[in-house]
Amino acid sequence: MASLIDNDTHRTEIFDSLPYYDNDLEKNPILREKVERELAREPKPPQTLHPRVPPPIELFKDKPGLAAELARVEAHQPLAPLDTIRYQLPAPTSTPGTDEEWQQALKNAQSQLEHQRIRHTNLALLQTYGPNAWRIHNYLLEATAKQAEATLEELKQRTTDINRDRKNSQTRIGNQLTSLENKWTELISSILQIEMANVALDAEVDRLNKKEAELASM
Hints:
coiled coil; two-stranded antiparallel ribbon; 2 strands; mainly alpha; mRNA processing; 5% strand; 67% helix; spliceosome
C-alpha cells in the first residue's frame, strides 16, 4: 500500500495497488509462485448470489404457449408442421352420405370460405397500409440501433479515457515512489557510512587515549 501527500491540495491519497507500475511478479518468479500458493489456499467464493442481486426473471409466466415455444427454441427443436387438416374439405365418408354428414361438410365449407374471405381482406389491408407501417417500424429500429451504438461507443471511449488516466496517474505516482525509494536508500547508505565513520573515530580515540596513557606513565 502506498501513501502519498499532494503538496498542492495537502491531501493524502492511499493506493492499495498500482497494477500499471508494480511488476514484482514479473521480476521475481518465486514471488509469483508464493502468491499463487496463497491464492490456492483461499476459500472458494460462495455459490449463492449476493442478496442485492435480483432473482432471475421468469419469462412468459402467465403465457404457457409462449413459454413452451421459448423452451422449444432453447432446446433447438424443429418447429412443428402446420396442421393442414382443418383447411381441407372432406366429403361424407359414406355413399351417398347422410343429411348430418352433408350438413357438417357444408358448415366446414362455409367456415373455409369465410376464412379465405378474411385472409383476402387482411392481404388487401396489408397491401395498402403494410409498406408504410414496415417503413416506420424499420426507421424506429434503425434509430434505436444507432442510439445503442452511440451509447456503446461513448462507454468504450469513457473506458479508454479512464484506463488512460489510471495509467498516467499510476505511472506518475510510481515515479514518485521510485524517487522516494532511491532517496531513502541513499539516506540509509549515508547513515551507515556515518555510523561506520563514528565507529572508526571511536576506535581512533581509544587508541590515542591508550597511547597518551602509556606516554604519561613513562
